[in-house]
Amino acid sequence: MYQKIYIVIGKVSRLANITDFEKFRTSVGLVLEVIKHQDSEQEMEQILTREAALHNIEYAVAKVIEGFTDIKMDHNENKEEFNMCKAWEDHRKLCMREGELRKIIEQSVKKLCNDVNAAETAVMLEENEALIQRIYKAAELYAPDYDVDKIYAELQKEEAPA
Fold it and tell me: Which phi and psi angles does 130 have, rounded to 5°?
């Protein structure tokens, strides 16, 4: 199965041209459809609602989806299957948290540029002062540009397990 999937995935540049995924008689069609629509919350919700097979997918299918997307699969302890619906929901929540943190970074940088200290910024933004201090510390590394992506990456490095 791996070989078939990788041969098809090797032609992923043509993926945008595929509109009828039902002509694939195996899970390859589902994999391609998920990969194609991974950036569209609306499309993914439709796929997950329509395709009951995604509630319990095989190990090989889960690994291919993980390899080509940012969606991480949790293994079902009782079965040799993975739940794509849960993985998508977890992915969506992670993206929302990332967006919220980036907004806090952006707002904190504006306050930092206006010489507002971390404690005051925390009160103004109704955020934890320790988080704002971490943001200020990371932001200082990237002064005077204060690139939000770099600051976010720096915060992620701090949280990464050793």
Answer: -60, -40
